[in-house]
Amino acid sequence: MNIIIVSRRHGQTKTFANWFPFLIISFCAVVFSGAGYLGYQWGKSSDNTVFDLDSADVWSRELNNQQVELENVRNFTEEQIQALTVRVGELQARLTRLDAMGERLVSVANLGDGEFDFSVAPALGGPGTENLDEANYLPPDFMSVLDELSARIEDREQQLSVLESFLGDRKVLMDTFIAGRPIKRGWMSSRYGYRTDPFNGKRAWHDGVDFAGRDGSDIIAVAAGVVTFAGKKSGYGNMIDINHGNGYTTRYAHAKELVVKVGDVIKKGQTVALMGSTGRSTGPHVHFEVMNLNKRQDPTQFINRAALNN
After folding, report:
1. Residue 190: beta bridge partners?
2. Range of the domain at 290
């Protein structure tokens, strides 16, 4: 390729041969080399101002601070987890105590089996919640929930303690409540009050009631109490006195055999003697008396209580 240049002054022309492209390439190489050198010098100067030792020290200190902060957060979290574990353990222990108290109340109150079973979790249920607005739902704070649960458990403990005390007192009262007949089988052969004496035929006062039955049959306590006398007494034969508290005492006489002794704690319905005919008696029976502050009471009113409380 040839290039022709025309001069304006002289009208002459000059022709350049094929060495001109080489000239253009050389010029570009010089320009690019210069630009690269200038870029290197600029980058070098920039590195000196940004990535210097002071910047490295700042970054190192910042990294150390972040590590210390992360360690503090980790320690705080572990402490919170430990505190939460201890709190949950305390609540579990209190719930176990409530379960034991509940089982005792079920036993004291004579509730039906299975109605209140504290050995299994409560039965729960209900429809699903697919339409729950999750955007407006905020999970509760765990410590607040635990504090609320602890307060409710404490309140239930107090209520159950009062109820247990009430039911316990009521059970003691019912156990010491004089009611029913002093025999399992038999019939009333003589009532309280005036009667014809079976030995002399004269009118005489009878301090108790008599229940006739089979020789050797059981004589039972009509209420819980403590045996205060067990032995022979003139006219009564083999006799037992049981103190029931509140000034009340019951007496069982003419027994063939005594099966308890002084100081024994007696339960309601427990066998205390066997029916016989010792002492001033005409046949196998039990002479039954009720005394309040050593004053004789009509046993009939206590015997009839059985129909009202059973």
Report:
1. 210
2. 187-309
